[in-house]
Each structure stands twice: as C-alpha cells, then as structure tokens.
Amino acid sequence: MSADALELPLDVAVTRPILEQIANKWTVLILSVLCTQPARFNDLKRRLDGITHKALSDALKRLERNGLISRRILPTQPVGVEYTITALGASLREPFAALYSWSLANGTKLAEAQRAYDESRRHMGFEDEI
C-alpha cells in the first residue's frame, strides 16, 4: 500500500449496517437530487428514471428513519409532501459527488472489463453463467 493511501480498520460489525442503509443506488441518487433543492414525491420519481413507486416510497421512509431527509406535509389540495435533505444527509454530498464523478469517468472501463470477462467465460464454455 502506498504511503499516501488511507488505511482504515475493517470493522465490519460497525460499518456494515450503516453502509447497507446509505450505499445503494437509490439512496445515492435520491440524496443527490435533494442536495440541490427540496422535492415532492412525483418530482423525485420523474427525475429518477427507472425507480418504481414502491422502491421510491420504501427508500424515502428508510432515509427519513435514518435522519437523512425530512418530510413536510404541504397545505395543498390534495395534500402534498415535500422531502428535504437534513444536515446529516447533506454531509454525504462530497462522498456521493466523488462516487458519481468516478462513475462518469470509469463507466466505459467497467463496461469494457465486463465484455472482456464475458468473452473469456464464453471461450471457456461458461455461457450459462453470463
């Protein structure tokens, strides 16, 4: 390991439950949207292409339970709900932005590695596993 590499103790018992709450695709994307401004449910659903109603609802409940977002009932007809990122949720902005930037910069490399892996598995006769 290089001298400037960050050395962290691997405390799985402590970090795993936390990472399970924050390190999934919808959490990262929802908090990234809410970092810029509060949003209503349907606005979030429109901006998060591919998320189902249930997945968004479940994720928002989990994020609220974990103190990463807050929920405010709007005095509209019909009643609306607006979600806002909390200070705790906003503290994830920098690491999520880094992860997002890394994804943009390395997505092509990942796709190339996947193709190469799949091709090597095909040549070895493992088509069923691809």
TrEMBL record:
The keyword Transcription regulation applies. It comes from the Bacteria. Residues 8-111 form the HTH hxlR-type domain. Keywords: DNA-binding, Transcription, Transcription regulation. GO terms for molecular function: DNA binding. PROSITE patterns: HTH_HXLR. This is Helix-turn-helix transcriptional regulator.
